C-alpha cells in the first residue's frame, strides 16, 4: 500500500507529502514506460515536477523499507532485520515480537518540535504491540492498520487485522472493512483518500503546518479496487488498483491547489519495494526492464518510481540522475522544516534539496541488503554484487519464483553465491537489466572495483548494527485484543506465549 | 538506421514525414521508459503529438518491414520472404538476387500523381540490382545506400557498400564514408540530417509538396556516432547513437517550425524492427519489458515505438491504443494526399487518420510472420502463438541468443513448436511480457480463441502469396560495379555467376 508524508508551515514554509506505493514497481507508471499508460495523474505530476530515475528503497521488503524511511537509517542500523539465518528478508507479520525501538528517532517526532501536526494514513508496519504504536513515535493521528490486509482469517488461529483510528481500533479487515476476494472489490483506497483530503482541509483551515504520510496498502496482494475502477484497466485487477491510486493522487494534488497551498507543499511519490513478480500478472506489477522483483537485491527489487512535486519551486519536467533513497526523505523533510538530523547516530539519508532545486549531483553509494548481509553496492553507474541469490532451489521447486521469465545464468542464482573476492560487476547505464557482467580481466572492471572496494571498506568498518527486531515470533502477540476492542466486542482470546525463532525462508 | 517519410502540399495540405529507426526498440525512448531518459527531443515530439502504444512492424527484420511500409502490404504478399526453409527470416544482403517487384506500387509512385517530390535518405534495402533502384520505384531523389553499412570488406570476396546520390554511387562506406570501428566515430548521421534539412528547405522555397523517407542506418550494428556525441550517454556507444538521432529529429522538427510549415507537415516516427538484443548492450538497444528482440515474433521483435506529430491537427499529449502497423503509413499518407490506395490488390495497411485526429479505435488484427508462416496473431488484447521459435539449439549453442536473460519455458523455444491446434494465448494488457500463457481450459481461453480462429481462418482463406524474392543468392550480383563507379575508379571485378539457395538459419 502507498504511504504518504507531508510537512507544512503557513507562509514561507512547507508541506512535505510522500506517497509510497507498496509493491508498485518502476514499470507500473506510464511515465516509466508501462505499455498501457494508465497513470495520467502520476504522469502529470512528473511533468509538473521532477522525475528521479535512480531512486532506491533501503530494502526489498516493506517493513524494513518503511522503518528506514522514517528513521533515515538503514534497517541494519535501526533493527529491522533478522539474524536467524544468512541474508534473509524479514518483516512484521502478526506474530512478530519486535518493532521500532524507542531509541530510534522518527521523522514525525522531530517535526513535532517545529510545530508540525503529523498523520499516518495506511499501513504502519513498524510493529503492532502497544509500545510500537505510531502515536507513541511522533504521529498525532492515524487511520489505518498495523499490518498487511491479509485475510480473511478465522479469529482463532489468526485474528483479522485491526484498523485503527488514532489510539484505538475501529474494526477489522474483512469484517467491518470489506474486501471481496472474488470480485476484488473494496473501497479502502477511497477511505484513505477521503482521510487525506479531510486532514489537509483541517490543517489548512487552522493554518497548522502538517506532515502527512500516505501509506495505503494497495497494491499489495490481495489486490483490490473500488467499484468505480473495477474492470477499467487493460491490465486487469492490478491495473484497476493502480488506476484508483493514480486517480487518488491526482485528487490530492488538485486539493492542495484548490486550497492554495500547493506552492507551500512538498510532495514526494515513491514505493517501498519493487513489484512482487511472484504475484504477477494478476496480483503484481511490473519493474519495467529491471531484473527480478520484491525480495531480491537486483534492480527490480529496489529501484523505485519516484517523483518530487512542489509547484513554483521545482522546475517542471525535470529529470534527475541523483542516486536517491527513501532514507533521504527523512533528511530532506527535516531540511524543509529547518531542522537538523540527529548528530548522535549514523544517518544514511542525505538532503536531496540541492539535487531537486539546483540540479546538483551528490556523490553517494547505494547499499543493497538482505538481513544484515550487504549483497550489493552501487557507485555511480556501476553495481557490484558481493552475494547473489534469488531464492532457494527448494522454494523454486514449489513454484516460488522472484524472477519469472528472467533467469540470468550465474546471476539470479538459487544458491547463495559469494562473490566477495571477485564481485559480479554491472554497468547500469549500458545494462540496466543486469544481464551482462563485466569481464573480470577488463581494465574497466579493475578501475571500477578499486573505487567500489574503498567505499565498501569504509561502510563496513564503521557499521554498528542495531539490535535485530525481527528474530522472535510468538502467537501470543498477535492482534487479539487491540486497544478499543472492548467497546466493539472484538477482543479475542490470546493463546499462551510460546516465543520461537521466526522462520524466514528467503 | 532510421528511415523517413514526408508528404506536403503548399497550403491546406501536408508534409508527411516518418522516421524509422532500424533496430531502435520500444524501450529505447525516455517516453517509453528507458531508465536513463536521454531522448528529450523524441519525448517532446510525443508530448506535442500522439504516442502509439500498440504499434507494430510487419516483420521482425529490416528489408521485409521496409518493403511492407512502402507497399502497404505484408511481406508474404509483396514477395519479401523466403521459402527455402520453414519460418525463416530473410533480408537483402549483397548477394541477394531478388528485390521489390515491378508489380508492386510503392507509396512514392502513387504520391507522384498528386504532385509530390519524393526523397529517400538512408538505407533502401529493397534490392540493389539496377531494376530495383529507388528512382525506378517512385523516388525522385536518393541519398544513401542500398544495404546495411556492414564492413569494412576487402572488395574481393565482398565489395564495400556503395553510397548513392540519386542515380549514381558517390563512394563507398569505410572508404569515402569513414566509420571508425575502434572508436565508434562516424559522421554519417550528421550527413543524413543535413540532407534532410536541405531537401526540406528546397521544397519549401519552391512551394513544392514533398514526401521524405528518412531511413538512416544507425542504430544498426556496427553502431556509430559523430564526435560531438561520443561518450555523452550513460548507455555507452549505443546510447551515443540514440542521442544523436534524437538530436537530429529535434533539429528537423524545429526546421519545419522555423520554415512555417510544421502545421502542414505530418511526421511519423517509428522503427523497422525491435532492438537486436543479440547485439546488446554495446551494439543493441532495449525493448523495454517486451519479450526477446529482432528476429522473433514475440513483442520485443515487432512492437515499435511510434509517434505521430502534426501541430495544430493532432491534439498534444495524445495517447492511442489503436493497433497500428508500419503498413498503415502507406494508406494514411495516401489519405493525407487525397489519394485512394490501389483497388486491384490486397492492401493490409489501414488509414490511421480517424485514430489520430478523432481518437477512434479501428478493429483490426496484427499478424506476426516469419517467412510465409503466420507465427502469431493479435486480436484486441489477446495474442495467440500458432508457432513458437526463437532460434535453433545449434545456433544457441554457439552463443546466438535473441532473448538474452529472458528464457520463458515453452515459449522462447529453440525448436520450432507447432501450436496450431491449441495456440499459446497471452493477454497483453495483464502480461505484456508474454510470460504467463492462459490456461487452455479456462473460459477466457475458449472465448478469445473463438474470435481469433475466425480472424485467422479468413486471413488464410484469402491469402495469395507473392513470388518469393529472397530465395536465391549469387555472388555475381553484389555491389561490384554500381552505376557511376567508372567516374570514381571504383568498379570492381564481378565473379562468375553461381546462383544458389540463400541460407537463412533463423
Automatic annotation (TrEMBL), chains A, B:
Where is the Sulfatase N-terminal domain positioned along the sequence? 24-338
Entry annotation: catalytic residues: 62, 125
Q: What is its EC number?
A: 3.1.6.4
InterPro entries, per the entry? Alkaline_phosphatase_core_sf, GALNS, Sulfatase, Sulfatase_CS, Sulfatase_N
Co-factor note (free text): Binds 1 Ca(2+) ion per subunit.
**Cofactor(s) the protein needs:** Ca(2+)
* Recorded catalytic activity of this chain's protein: Hydrolysis of the 6-sulfate groups of the N-acetyl-D-galactosamine 6-sulfate units of chondroitin sulfate and of the D-galactose 6-sulfate units of keratan sulfate
Q: What's the family?
A: Belongs to the sulfatase family.
Q: How does it assemble?
A: Homodimer.
Annotated protein name in UniProt: N-acetylgalactosamine-6-sulfatase
**Organism lineage:** Eukaryota, Metazoa, Chordata, Craniata, Vertebrata
